[in-house]
What we know:
Largest sheet: 4 strands, parallel
Radius of gyration: 17 Å
Number of helices: 6
Shape: globular
Strand content: 5-15%
Order of helices and strands: HEHEHHEHEH
Amino acid sequence: MNEAFLNQMTEFIFVEHKLQKADIIFIPGSGHPQLAEEAAHLYKQGLAPWILPSGRYSITRGKFMEVREEKGRYPGTFETEWEFLAQVLVQNKVPKEAILKENQATYTYENAIYSRKVTDQMRLEVKRAILCCKPYHARRCLLYYQLLYPETEFLVHPITESPVRRENWFLTEQGTNLVLGEIERIGTQFHEIMREMRESIVSTEE
């Protein structure tokens, strides 16, 4: 397999930055507790004073399906991804007053859109933010959040507990499907975003 091709694909999808103190930690919606567990770890290290989990449920499923791992540690019925992620944060010793609420988003772009509404309502200036996500979801998350927060420096921090990582994604069909699926979604979803941008530019010029 062509090494240069794999390297380009890997570097595009699997984004990661060195952490610094930030104004907030964002968590895109998920049923994977590791995202909130890692965010809690970062919070307790003093890397940010706020955590904003975002998510109602997947638009394709129409409801919060299930906790993906560690069901015994996080039992119960959850109506939204936010409710689940907030519970994980609380169980990992994050004070409730540090957890912001966004429970309307049904896909990644909406995670960014509605998160921006929350921070704007708080009049929270976000100069630097940590984005806690799955490794193969990193590029799409960064593109969306950067689109809604153009003035913000984002530090992408993917969780380490994932079966699909930058060093092994191409070795399994599951990993290949996930990574190529991310690339397909970036292309498909950004067609609509670019259309909106063009219409906005034309409207401004008229």
